[in-house]
Amino acid sequence: MSIDLSQFIPSFLEESLEGLELMETSLLNLQQGDDDSINAIFRAAHSIKGGAGTFGFNEVTEFTHLVETLLDEMRDGRREIAQPDIELLLVSVDCLRILIEAIRDEEACNNSNILATAKRLELALDNSNSESRCKLSNETSDQQNNALSTWLITFIPEPHLVQTGNDPLLLFNALSELGEVSLEAHSKDIPSLLELDAEALYLSWSLAIKTSANEDDIKEVFEWVEDECQLTITKKPIDIQDEKSLVAPLHDEMTELTLAKQKPSTAVSVTQEKKSQKAKNDSGSIRVGVDKVDSLINLVGELVITQSMLSELGNDFEMSKLARLTTGLEQLLQNTKELQESVMRIRMLPISFVFNRFPRLVHDLSKKTGKEITLVIDGEQTELDKTVMEQIGDPLVHLVRNAVDHGIESKAVRLANGKAEKGTITLAAYHQGGNIVIEINDDGGGINRQAVFEKALEKGIVDANTTLSESQVFDLIFEPGFSTAKELSDISGRGVGMDVVKKNIQSLGGRIQIESEPGKGSQFKVYLPLTLAILDGQLVKVGSEVYIIPLVTIVESLQVKEQLVNRVSGDMVLYRLREDNVPIIPIYNLFNIPAENKEISNALLVVVEADGQKVGLMVDDLLAQQQVVVKSLNENYQQVDGISGATILGDGSVAMILDIPGMIQMALKKSQRAQQVKLANKPQLAGVSS
Amino acid sequence: MDIQALAAEIPMEGEYNLEGIDFISSGKQFLAFILAQEQYAVDILCVEEIRSWENPTKIPNAPSYVKGVINMRGIIVPIIDLRLKFGIGDANYSETTVVIVLTVENEDKSRTIGFVVDAVSDVLNSEDDEVKNAPDFGGCVPQKYIDGLINVGDNVVTLLNVQALQAIEAH
Amino acid sequence: MSKILVVDDSNSIRDMVSFTLKSAGYDTIEARDGQQGLSKAKSNSFDLVISDVNMPIMDGITLCSELRKLPSFKFTPVLMLTTESSVDMKMRGKAAGATGWLVKPFNPEKLLATIKRVIR
Asked: At residue A275, does pLDDT exceed 70?
């Protein structure tokens, strides 16, 4: 029987990574005298070492051993908890993470940093190093000579031996695995019945074993009891005939040990087949709390009840049962809704999974920039869809880096401005409407509107005549080409610009908004849909086409009042909605489709908002509001401008879901192009004499 | 349209009829169809379904040959009119107009697209060596879509490359 | 059917020990820390207890001495699973009443052979 433990490798790797996370968090918050934390950190390292040893991940074992030894000194009080050590341990955690991820991703790991860190650990441990190193070496291989020898053993246990849970009979049992055993028990020390302690052992034994094993192997059988007995093991010159005369097989009522055959040793195969899962972000599985599963089970149960009730009603239906049928259908609607919500919630995980990398990040960035920064995290239990979470990590990292790099000012500047020396960055998450909102706030210097505008001017992103609202100026930061290479510092750099951040967020169906006050700080708000797959939509009709407008974008719907329509600079048509001037977008124009009504004067307008910008969509008719399942067009076709997806309506037909920010962009580009054409066609007035 | 029914009508040698399922001993099977009175064919293994023409939902600002998308058992399938794409014949939509839905698997991705044709013709069996090379004579259909020619009786059937067709609108 | 209590805060170690024992025909019950182990012990009888030393809430050494206080566990073999094999560890274990120890890294073959010293 060979025991294959490779099935446990993935869970061990996952567990180890979690352990490393725990170590990191605890190390970041470690204070003097915090015994609990130090012990927890030690335990985590200890578990990783143990498991790694089992699977033969030697690099990990050796490295972790160093870490563990250092931690051991700290928890014993032999070593004070000093900052340099904590930093070293943090770097060590990084190294271990790399090693373990390499195993998981089945990649080779040639990281010189790891070797360097190992050296640093050894240095820190000084001369205790060599000792601990020795302990690590694998068990010495047994020297098996195939020749059988006879060994004579005398075993005189202390009376209280059995109270340790050891049983001589079972020890002999184990011994018999090594070879043929014959023995004799000696009962001379058994006292009279009156003096007898029922829980004490008064016997001793002489044994003989014929085995090819060596003395150490025999000794090992008794290793647990060696302090509680007198044990002698001597080798008898090979003389098989003598054996019988040496030990008379006495039949003591307590001990009759039959000669056991040596069993073939079980082969062990911890197969090095690493069935680890690829991809850094493992999208293949998800952990679900039992409570969510139970809730699901309950809801399905209710659904079944409703179904059978409806089925019964349907059996011989008469109009008199109509009311009950309606109730039943309403119940079905309710059940389905609840079931849907419940299932969606399975994919939801707390955002802490993403947030937990930030304390370390800010800690490292603080040190790198020499700025002192406190990170406040709020709402980490807020849940969001697993896929969204996997993809929002990188953009958030960039935004936080940005806050450290460009947001928070240097200590000197802060003090000069009467601010606290320590800057604060707040990371918050909460639910609002159908969205999850993630805020990255800093109490830094704020965004300089003028500087941004000038930079955009310089890059040719805007021209001098463009007037922009405050939020529009801030949005310029997201234009591709806004940041230059010389600005992309090591911290905020790596070719990830703000435009990529915005694109990533938009591809998740979300948006990002900036608010800032000079001298006070900036606020970056990321809005993401709670679920990618389901949308509350307003169905509208344009011509013969049905479109769906996401309900969260709708501000209001209205019938145009002629007098509130204004035409500005030629092509733009604006509608006065209270204080705002809202541009009107005729969908039929944007999408090049026939429409019933092309007259703005009595059109139906659905005012929507995206990226802080309001527009009025011209439609022919307002239809129902309903929840739709979003299907991607990318699967079999490709991304379409202005369309975020499609859905299948109740009648089986396909309807397009409008991408409001995309449409606004399209309209903008269209009018800009129209302007350019106009300008190109304008006769040159200057310098032309009449 | 039932492929099996079509196939059953064609007498072929070396076939074994097993409960209406036709086995061929070797070679490939193709679905032949008509575009502007000419015969074309595609590998039958890629044919997911043959549907009669129905008005698809339009895709805004799509090229004229992309008619829109339809709902095929919950899947959103784009519909491409080959007559418009290749610029051959008239794009009429009558009772015989059909949509051949092809599914192609690429590495980890599979794509399903429906192609509008005038009518479905036959199921063809053909050995590999019967597929001849198509001379590049500058016909309506660009060379990259053509895998070869098959002679069926007096007619010539143009074999289309499904992979190329599937990439048809990714410009 | 011999019943073994496996106590370890590491899921993977616990799973592996349990799996190995079950493959050899033993029955196992698991606990993730000393406290849970103790409560399982109070409501079950075991032929052997295998416990990790370093665990939260209640460590293995404490678990052992607590077990020894229970009448039904006076003579039950208790083995400590640990990466340490120092003299100090052995003494602490003995003082708590441990029967013996098993050194990690965990070797399934060794485990099965070794526990034969204390279980049938």
From this structure: no
The Cα–Cα gap between A566 and A573 comes to 6
Chains C and B touch (3+ CB pairs under 8 A): no
Domain ranges, residue C59: 3-115
Q: Mean pLDDT, chain A, as a whole number?
A: 79
Domain-embedded: residue B171: no
Query: Residue A192: exposed, middle, or buried by beta-carbon count in 10 A (0-12, 13-18, 19+)?
Result: exposed
According to the model, what pLDDT value does residue C74 have?
86
Whether A15 and C11 have beta carbons less than 8 Å apart is answered as: yes
Indicate which CATH number applies to the domain containing C71.
3.40.50.2300
3-state secondary structure of A667: helix
Smallest CA–CA separation between A165 and chain C, in Å? 4
User: Any catalytic annotation for residue A18?
Assistant: no
| Tally of structural domains, chain C | 1
| A46 part of the active site | yes
**Four-CA torsion A559, A565, A568, A570, nearest 10 degrees:** 80
Catalytic, out of A24, A65, A228, A402: A402
* Count of other CB atoms within 10 angstroms of residue A276: 19
Active site residue A146: no
Residue C8 lies in a domain: yes
* Residue B152 located in a structural domain: yes
Q: Are A220 and A234 in contact (CB under 8 A)?
A: no
Strands A521-529 and A268-269: unpaired
Asked whether A183 and A206 are in contact (CB, 8 A), the reply is: yes
CB atoms within 10 A of CB A606: 23
DSSP secondary structure code for residue A37 in this structure: H
Decide: B and A in contact? Rule: 3+ Cβ pairs under 8 Å: yes
Give the residue, A464 or A494, on which the prediction is more confident.
A464
**Residue B7 maps to a domain:** yes
Please report where in the chains the tokens 């429409």 appear, as a residue: A595
Q: How far is CA A192 from the centre of its chain?
A: 69
Cα B2 to chain centroid, rounded: 15
Report how many domains make up chain B.
1
Contact indicator for A448, A402 with CB cutoff of 8 Å:
no
Please report the sign of the dihedral spanned by the C-alpha atoms of residue C92, residue C97, residue C98, residue C100.
Answer: positive
Mean pLDDT is lowest, of A459-468, A659-668, B60-69, for A459-468
Q: For chain B, give the mean pLDDT.
A: 80
The CATH number that applies at residue B129 is: 2.40.50.180
CB < 8 Å to B78, chain A? 633, 636-637
Return the higher-pLDDT residue of A635 and A304: A304
Q: Are B68 and B79 in contact (CB under 8 A)?
A: yes
Contact residues for A261 (Cβ-Cβ < 8 A; gap 6+): none
Residue C118 to chain A, least CA–CA distance (Å): 5
CA angle at residue B75 from A528 to A537, to 5 degrees? 40
pLDDT > 70 in chain A, percent: 85
Structural tokens at position A599: 């007259």
Which domain range does residue B150 map to?
3-166
Least CB-CB distance to C99: which of A51, A54, A166?
A166
ipTM: 0.86
| B84 vs A487: which has the higher pLDDT | B84
The tens digit of pLDDT for each residue in A23-63 reads 998 888 887 677 778 888 988 898 888 888 878 888 898 89
In B, minimum Cα distance to A543 occurs at: B58
Indicate whether C92 belongs to any domain: yes
- C-chain CB neighbours of A135 within 8 Å are 85
Residue C120 lies in a domain: no
Average pLDDT over residues A567-595: 84
pLDDT tens digits for B34-61?
988 889 999 999 999 999 999 999 999 8
